[in-house]
Write a structure and sequence with these properties.
By secondary structure, the chain is mostly helical. It has helices at 3-24, 39-55, 60-78, 88-102, 104-127, 132-135, 138-147, 163-183, 190-249, 256-287, 297-316. The chain is built from 11 helices and no strands.
């Protein structure tokens, strides 16, 4: 193969690898660059093409160009990664929101699978009340009615439990739900899918039943303040699980091991942020949500405010111009 034909055939690959290296080194003006998953394949091809150029004695200029491209690619791919200087506060204020926005596809998928059944059960039980006992055992429904009875001085709590005990229970329960939903991704996403649907159905059935039997003011005033933190954290945990599943199901040009490492970094940042949300929800659920405040509209206002703050945070925190 003549050098002109060689350059024509493989020039696009060299340009693509060069663009990716430039972006990695901080050049933000380049928009059209190859996906990360294609970079190992491009790098291997350029290494092979450098060997061919040397063997076929192509011009020194071409050989040197490919040599420099291989050196730059090796430095980017195999050099020790720079330490992550983003501290906890920076992650909390902006990094977590950027991560959620970057993974909006799996976040929306997880949200649909969780909130869809929740809202469907909530509405369906208003039409077919007996359906609640199909999803949840009647004795559990009776216990829920006792906890949210207007005569209960500590809303949503068992008579023998203190706020601190309930806080500890909520921390444990939230951690369990989040971890199950996240870790289920390692089963090719089947576990994550199951826990998102299950929790959506279960929570929707409880809310729907209590509202249908006339305990709506009690249950809605109880869940108002912490609902945004807890429910969105479940959806984000599902998104983290789906990132693990993506690495196993569709690794692209990467090996599954490499894909799992790369997607796992993203997944652990997502589940780390969700864990903080679960903890904050447990604090509110243990110490503020049980309070009987008159009028109830105060707690509804707090709940609406929490939803607006969280949605605003995920939409706008950490944005730069054009991001």
């Amino acid at each position: 193969m003549r050098q002109i034909e060689f350059e024509r055939r493989f020039g696009e690959q060299w340009a693509a690898l060069d663009q990716w290296i430039a972006v990695h080194n901080g050049n933000k003006t380049i928009k059209d660059r190859p996906p990360v998953s294609a970079v190992p394949w491009l790098y291997r091809n350029v290494c092979h093409q450098l060997a061919l150029a040397r063997e076929r004695r192509y011009s020194p200029q071409l050989t040197e160009r490919l040599h420099q491209l291989v050196l730059a690619g090796h430095h980017v791919l195999y050099a020790a990664p720079a330490p992550n200087r983003e501290g906890f506060l920076a992650f909390l204020l902006s990094g977590f929101a950027r991560e959620v926005r970057a993974e909006w596809r799996v976040v929306w998928l997880a949200s649909l699978l969780f909130f869809g059944p929740l809202l469907a059960l909530l509405m369906a039980i208003q039409i077919w009340p007996d359906f609640a006992s199909v999803v949840i055992a009647p004795q559990d429904l009776a216990q829920m009615q006792t906890m949210y009875d207007p005569e209960n001085e500590r809303l949503g709590q068992r008579p023998a439990s203190t706020n601190t005990e309930m806080f500890a229970y909520y921390v444990w329960n939230n951690t369990r739900i989040g971890f199950q939903t996240f870790a289920g991704g390692i089963l090719y996403g089947i576990g994550t899918l199951f826990f998102l649907l299950f929790n959506g159905v279960y929570i929707g059935a409880i809310l729907g039943h209590l509202h249908q039997v006339g305990l709506g003011p009690q249950i809605w005033s109880f869940v108002a303040a912490h609902s945004a933190l807890e429910l969105l954290a479940i959806a984000i945990s599902g998104a983290a699980g789906f990132k693990l599943a993506t690495a196993l199901i569709a690794p692209g040009l990467r090996s599954r091991k490499l894909a799992l490492v790369e997607e796992g970094r993203i997944a652990f940042r997502l589940i780390g942020g969700a864990a903080l949300m679960f903890f904050a929800a447990a604090v509110i659920e243990g110490f503020f949500s049980p309070l009987i405040i008159d009028p109830r509209e105060i707690k509804y206002g707090v709940g609406i405010g929490m939803w607006l703050v969280l949605l605003g945070y995920f939409c706008f925190a950490g944005r730069t111009r054009g991001a």
